[in-house]
Write a structure and sequence with these properties.
This protein is of the alpha+beta class. The chain is built from 12 helices and 33 strands.
């Protein structure tokens, strides 16, 4: 009953999402019929696309993505990859590291005609009328014969053909590392997003995507020996079999050498699939929840491989309650972990993963929240997807390890581990995320998080910014407003903005309303600049029987400050110094007595406070004992007095 109610609320929310005043968004419905030839690695497609212009604007043109045209010699992706390959870093043991993506390098330049990727448009009509168009490599521009008026609907009919490229990046065929035959991502002509900022015809150069939510009906015909995993719900399960059939049903396949797989997917902004004749398909049914599908390249007799993929399925069942409690309800009826791609790649209801690593599996599943349901423009706000997912992955991984540890010890798992992330434990969960950010600062290559994902000067800077600095953004937000209010913010953010394409300011406004603290300064410094945090204990002295302590802001980014004092008699006290621009204060987070001092004005490089203790009674002073503040130099954060 609970799941039925949640599903009803989900559908209701879907309707409301398109009627929000001031934040309209477009809607699509794709119906595609695909005929794949596994000998030539080519397929033909017919696409019917219904497009609702919910904007207040008249549209005189539309744009489509033709992603696979990037996999041709001298494409933008090829040229950019080779250019970045000229940048070299000094790695560990004086090893020279090239900056290019090791999966791409100069491989596109070497592709032969039968190895390249392409998507060719054979015909395109709008409401039955042939349209003129131009192809700009990975972007199709359509000059409409008749404009699309506000609040109107049109139908585009397209015929196209495509060739599956050798596996280079994300999609492709015959990846030697996985042995998977087809990884079909970015495989169809996909309408570009039009939002309050206008069209987003972003060429496929390297990374990150943005799409229009809608409904998909996808019919894929190919050799009947191939097994498919992908987005959506398979409709003809008892004609297909391969582990999809209804319990106890007899599988009756049509005659002939091919099978047509019929999928539907409601309220998604993309569709992915993968196919291989040796896929092994296992499932887990979560009571009252989604079905977990795992499809992987079977290696007969390799028990370790089977065990590893089975653990992915079991782990998904274990962690989903934790995920939904902290990040929001998963609204779809299935999720698939599919062997394929070239690493880990997120799509609605599915991910392609090159192996059964749990960290990657958790990371890609969390994209269901921060990209598939919240759907920021990844090209502009990659850190709001990759960074938030990295933060969530850290916590989900820590939770799973705790559950595994309890299972090994034979403890009752019903109560679960503590959900508290406060204090010292938090940085331990996110130690690698913080380390990645500190490494970025040390490199001297940091660029603001506002940099377009494709426009970073180095792949290194992009990865550390989007994943690490973006992850620290959330962990550190807990330091600023408290972990409990940060957690409430994440749930409220999900509830308010799922299926609505939020931006950075939308998230900050939610956090401000939940916490009652002004946070525009935090976004300004952390997102728009590369200024760093560095606070130090400057000096201590006694005056009138009281201890005076002077702190110094060495870095250029202001922060609120927690100072822990330990006294000789074993007692402790926290001095909390709000940052002036907060116009508020976070609640106390522990049972240590706390004194709230006057806010620190960012224009003043030093700050002096006093405590009602003689200097000789002070044993230690430490700035940010929780280590949640991303202070780039902690050597000056703690002073121990050896009296």
């Amino acid at each position: 009953m609970t799941r039925i109610l949640l599903a009803a609320l989900f559908l209701c929310g879907y309707t409301i999402a398109f009627s929000q005043p001031g934040r309209w968004q477009q809607k699509v419905k794709y119906v595609m019929d695909i005929d794949m030839n596994v000998q030539t690695n080519r397929f033909t497609g017919k696409q019917k696309l219904e497009y609702w212009n919910n904007s207040p604007d008249t549209l005189y043109k539309v744009f489509y993505h033709l992603y696979w045209n990037a996999f041709q010699p001298n494409s933008m992706m090829d040229a950019r990859s080779r250019e970045l390959g000229n940048i070299e870093f000094q790695g560990r043991n004086n090893q020279v590291i090239k900056d290019w993506d090791a999966r791409v390098t100069n491989r596109i330049q070497q592709l032969k005609p039968d190895e390249i990727g392409y998507q060719k448009i054979l015909s395109l009509k709008m409401n039955g009328v042939t349209q003129e168009y131009k192809v700009y490599e990975t972007i199709l521009e359509v000059q409409l014969s008749k404009p699309i008026l506000p609040k109107s609907r049109v139908v585009f009919d397209m015929e196209f053909e495509a060739q599956v490229p050798l596996q280079i990046r994300r999609s492709g065929r015959d990846n030697p590392n996985t042995g998977v035959r087809y990884s079909m991502s970015q495989w169809y002509p996909k309408l570009c997003e039009y939002d309050y900022e206008g069209w987003h015809p972003t060429p496929y150069v390297a990374r990150e995507f943005y799409g229009v939510w809608g409904d998909y009906e996808v019919n894929i015909t190919l050799d009947k020996n191939y097994i498919i995993g992908g987005t959506g719900y398979l409709q003809n399960v008892n004609q297909i079999g391969y582990g999809y059939e209804s319990k106890g049903a007899k599988v009756t396949r049509p005659s002939g050498n091919t099978l047509t797989w019929r999928f539907t997917a409601p309220n998604v902004h993309d569709f992915v699939w993968a196919a291989d004749p040796q896929f092994k398909h296992i499932t887990r049914n979560i009571p009252g929840g989604p079905t977990i599908h795992v499809l992987y390249k079977n290696k007969p007799g390799n028990t370790a491989n089977d065990n590893a993929w089975n653990e992915v399925a079991d782990a998904a069942v274990t962690v989903l309650p934790f995920i939904e409690k902290h990040f929001g309800v998963y609204p779809y009826k299935q999720y698939s972990f599919i062997h394929g791609g070239d690493g880990g790649m997120e799509y609605p209801m599915a991910t392609l993963v090159s192996g059964p690593g749990l960290g990657t599996a958790f990371h890609e599943w969390m994209h269901s929240w921060y990209q598939m349901m919240l759907g920021t423009n990844e090209s502009l706000y990659a850190w709001m997807d990759e960074g938030f997912v990295t933060y969530a992955e850290d916590l989900v991984s820590a939770y799973y390890k705790q559950q595994k540890s309890k299972a090994v010890k034979g403890n009752d798992l019903s109560t679960g581990p503590s959900d508290s992330n406060a204090g010292v434990a938090l940085p331990l969960h996110h130690a690698d995320t913080y380390a990645g950010y500190f490494n970025l600062v040390k490199s001297g290559l940091e660029e603001p998080l506002t940099t377009h994902a494709d426009h970073f000067n180095t792949n290194f800077a992009y990865a550390r910014a989007a994943y690490s600095k973006g992850g620290v953004f959330l962990a550190q937000l807990g330091y600023i407003i408290s972990d409990s209010l940060r957690d409430k913010t994440l749930l409220e953010y999900y509830n308010q903005w799922k299926f609505k394409h939020p931006n950075a300011n939308d998230f900050i406004r939610v956090a401000e309303k939940v916490s009652g603290i002004q946070l525009d300064w935090y976004k300004e410094y952390w997102v728009n600049t590369t200024k760093t945090i560095d606070y130090s204990i400057d000096s201590l002295w006694e005056q009138g029987g009281k201890t005076k302590i002077r702190l110094r802001m060495v870095g250029q980014m202001p922060m609120p400050i927690d100072v822990l004092l330990q006294y000789k008699n074993g007692t402790k006290a926290t001095i909390y110094i709000p940052q002036f621009s907060m116009f508020g204060e976070k609640p106390a987070e522990d049972n240590i007595p706390r004194i709230v001092d006057e806010p620190w004005k960012w224009t003043h490089p030093t700050y002096v406070f006093e405590v009602e203790q003689s200097l000789m009674n002070v044993q230690a002073v430490e700035i940010d004992p929780s280590w949640r503040m991303a202070d780039i130099n902690r050597s000056n954060n703690k002073l121990e007095l050896k009296w």
